[in-house]
Write a structure and sequence with these properties.
The protein is α+β, with helices and mostly antiparallel strands and 188 residues long. It has one domain: Roll (Nuclear Transport Factor 2, Chain: A). The protein is built from 5 helices and 7 strands, in the order H-H-H-H-E-E-H-E-E-E-E-E. The termini are far apart. The relative contact order is 0.13.
Length: 188
């Protein structure tokens, strides 16, 4: 008799658990609940500067590597469709910006160095706001075919957004050229 009581209690518990599982599945309108993706988890969790900054730095390194290699295709992969660029009265969308870069990069023979430092890094909602100072020295073929050394300094403000899992891309870039030297002679 005691053995039968145990069977009934076990069967009753099994039925209760089954009903609980089935009712949970009905709430999600799916027999199997889909696991949360990393992106959906991140969107629910506030962004933390210490976690975002290395990801933005990695994206910057990809852009700099593409610049040094003069690989516009690689560079373009890291620029979103809604990108906006401003410099010295220019206001360019992504397509115009990439066309402009192609013209700017054409006479470059090689980049000697490209350095940057963050002046500001802030999280505002789902965006990272940066202020970056850069120094870029490159060998450039002038109109007569001679090689010149061009050295520029920039102060750039950018707004970054996450477009894919752990892929931060610049949505907006305001670039101000602070100085420009050709073979050591100040041009700006």
């Amino acid at each position: 008799m005691m053995h039968k009581d145990f069977q009934y209690k076990f069967a009753f518990c099994f039925v209760l658990i089954s009903i609980f599982i089935l009712s949970s599945c009905k709430e999600s309108n799916s027999p199997l609940q889909s696991p949360k993706t990393e992106a959906s988890i991140k969107s629910a969790v506030p962004l933390v500067k210490e976690n975002v900054r290395p990801e933005v730095e990695l994206s910057l390194m990809k852009l700099i590597d593409a610049l040094k290699a003069k690989d516009l295709t690689l560079y373009a992969r890291n620029i979103p469709e809604n990108f906006q660029f401003r410099r010295a009265g220019m206001n360019l969308d992504r397509k115009e910006y990439l066309e402009w870069l192609e013209e700017e990069w054409r006479p470059i023979v090689k980049t000697n160095f490209y350095e940057l430092s963050f002046g500001k890094f802030e999280i505002k909602g789902d965006e990272a706001h940066t202020k970056i100072s850069t120094r870029w020295e490159r060998q450039v073929k002038n109109k007569t075919g001679q090689i010149e050394t061009h050295f520029s300094t920039y102060e750039e403000e950018a707004i970054w957004k996450m477009y894919n899992e752990n892929s931060w891309q610049p949505q907006f870039l305001n670039s101000n050229e602070r100085s420009f030297l050709v073979d050591g002679i100040q041009k700006k």
